[in-house]
């Protein structure tokens, strides 16, 4: 598969394409601990993200996996295809040095998202390996955090485009 490039960097299409990655158990949203995570499903969040991204002039790929290696592979495939990443690594947030290393390696903006405020939860959830590689973190705002992450990436990518001129 080939991706559009210009002599001076990524084309507009790549720059405005975003990949949203979701980690383990997020496929169970809506039924998994609704008192903590709410009743929205991952499909509901995906639809909301597609609508918001379209309004920003962005396209996106929305993916979920319960497998760490698959998430790492998707991060590694992002450069050249996507201008930025939104990642809710779920439990891998607190354990995956491999995901952190992959995010550091790709050198494209990433925003970390969590539905709940990980800093108000169990002490082991307070540490985020992903935060060490992300441009920012949004947590505790439910599904609206994904919208805020798309807005943040839009601002980062717009700023990046202005600097390239």
From TrEMBL:
<dbReference type="GO" id="GO:0009073">
    <property type="term" value="P:aromatic amino acid family biosynthetic process"/>
</dbReference>
<dbReference type="Pfam" id="PF01220">
    <property type="entry name" value="DHquinase_II"/>
</dbReference>
<dbReference type="InterPro" id="IPR018509">
    <property type="entry name" value="DHquinase_II_CS"/>
</dbReference>
<feature type="active site" description="Proton donor">
    <location>
        <position position="114"/>
    </location>
</feature>
<dbReference type="GO" id="GO:0009423">
    <property type="term" value="P:chorismate biosynthetic process"/>
</dbReference>
<feature type="binding site">
    <location>
        <position position="88"/>
    </location>
    <ligand>
        <name>substrate</name>
    </ligand>
</feature>
<feature type="binding site">
    <location>
        <position position="125"/>
    </location>
    <ligand>
        <name>substrate</name>
    </ligand>
</feature>
<dbReference type="GO" id="GO:0008652">
    <property type="term" value="P:amino acid biosynthetic process"/>
</dbReference>
<keyword id="KW-0028">Amino-acid biosynthesis</keyword>
<keyword id="KW-0456">Lyase</keyword>
<comment type="function">
    <text>Catalyzes a trans-dehydration via an enolate intermediate.</text>
</comment>
<feature type="binding site">
    <location>
        <begin position="115"/>
        <end position="116"/>
    </location>
    <ligand>
        <name>substrate</name>
    </ligand>
</feature>
<dbReference type="InterPro" id="IPR036441">
    <property type="entry name" value="DHquinase_II_sf"/>
</dbReference>
<comment type="similarity">
    <text>Belongs to the type-II 3-dehydroquinase family.</text>
</comment>
<comment type="subunit">
    <text>Homododecamer.</text>
</comment>
<feature type="active site" description="Proton acceptor">
    <location>
        <position position="37"/>
    </location>
</feature>
<dbReference type="GO" id="GO:0019631">
    <property type="term" value="P:quinate catabolic process"/>
</dbReference>
<comment type="pathway">
    <text>Metabolic intermediate biosynthesis; chorismate biosynthesis; chorismate from D-erythrose 4-phosphate and phosphoenolpyruvate: step 3/7.</text>
</comment>
<feature type="site" description="Transition state stabilizer">
    <location>
        <position position="32"/>
    </location>
</feature>
<dbReference type="GO" id="GO:0003855">
    <property type="term" value="F:3-dehydroquinate dehydratase activity"/>
</dbReference>
<keyword id="KW-0057">Aromatic amino acid biosynthesis</keyword>
<dbReference type="InterPro" id="IPR001874">
    <property type="entry name" value="DHquinase_II"/>
</dbReference>
<feature type="binding site">
    <location>
        <position position="94"/>
    </location>
    <ligand>
        <name>substrate</name>
    </ligand>
</feature>
<feature type="binding site">
    <location>
        <position position="101"/>
    </location>
    <ligand>
        <name>substrate</name>
    </ligand>
</feature>
<protein>
    <recommendedName>
        <fullName>3-dehydroquinate dehydratase</fullName>
        <ecNumber>4.2.1.10</ecNumber>
    </recommendedName>
</protein>
């Amino acid at each position: 598969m080939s991706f559009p490039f210009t002599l001076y960097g990524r084309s507009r299409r790549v720059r405005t394409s975003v990949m949203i990655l979701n980690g383990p158990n997020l496929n169970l949203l809506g039924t998994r601990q609704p008192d903590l995570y709410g009743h929205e499903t991952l499909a509901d969040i995906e639809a909301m993200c597609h609508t918001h991204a379209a309004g920003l002039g962005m396209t996106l790929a929305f993916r979920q996996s319960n497998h760490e290696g698959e998430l790492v592979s998707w991060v590694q495939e992002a450069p050249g295809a996507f201008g930025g990443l939104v990642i809710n690594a779920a439990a891998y947030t607190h354990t995956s040095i491999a995901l952190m290393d992959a995010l550091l390696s790709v050198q494209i903006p990433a925003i970390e998202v969590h539905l709940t405020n990980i800093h108000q939860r169990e002490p082991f959830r307070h540490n985020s390996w992903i935060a060490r590689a992300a441009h920012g973190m949004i947590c505790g705002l439910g599904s609206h955090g994904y919208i805020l992450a798309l807005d943040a990436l839009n601002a980062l990518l717009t700023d990046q485009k202005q600097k390239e001129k």
